[in-house]
Amino acid sequence: MKSITIKGSERESVGKKSAKALRNAGKVPCVIYGGEKPLHFSADELSFKDLVYTPNAHTVVIDLGDGKKFDAIKQDIQFHPVTDSILHVDFYQLFPDKPVSMDIPVKLVGNSPGVRNGGRLLFRKRKLSIKALPGDLPDFFEVDISKLKIGQHISVESLKKDEFAILHPDATAVVQVMAARNMVIVDDEAEEGEEAEATEEGAAEAAN
User: Which helix (H) or strand (E) holds 77?
Assistant: First the structure.
């Protein structure tokens, strides 16, 4: 999984006044959990754009200078209710031998024959929660819908792998194709058979 580096500096004071002063200076108060004790730091708000404003999943390298670097994932983020500026970010420290939970995006590939026949594609799970060792975290789930017909779905069970555990029931639908109202469902194979039969009849009539 791709990592994003965020450079910051440790905070000695963690009170409300200190946090307000940081925000006024264009910085975001942050904390890293998961180690021996919480570690407070701050970083420029602009340094979070590739982490926050994206549908992709990333791990983070937090660089506090003097050789202090921490592998982490974003755990929680708070935004200002009016301006949408970032108020605070919580991170969780990663360790190579310690499993971690994370939301991984789902990407659809291919064209569904059910949609071509007028069905509605319902993307039920755009992200899936998984638990894995940091080295086994996937960038995304790729779901092929090129054989998905009307009335069919792809479930979590088909995406399972030994490297991670998906934290949803196996029967959970990730994507499905439903029939639209007042539509006539056409089966591709049946349609092809009818066309072939019509062609044979036409040839026979021409021969006569």
Answer: strand 69-79
Q: What is the band of 182 on the pLDDT scale with cuts at 50, 70, 90?
A: low
- Match 């990730």 to its residue by tokens: 174
* Cβ–Cβ under 8 Å, residues 63 and 48: no
User: Which residue do the tokens 């029931």 mark?
Assistant: 169
Rounded to two decimals, the pTM is 0.79
Inter-residue contact 189 to 150 (CB < 8 Å) = no
pLDDT in tens, 2-22: 899 999 998 876 777 788 888
Copy the structure tokens of residue 70.
């921490």
Tokens of 37: 């004790």
Contacts of 49 (CB under 8 A, 6+ apart): none
Strand 86-93 relative to strand 27-33: parallel, antiparallel, unpaired?
parallel
SS3 at position 24: helix
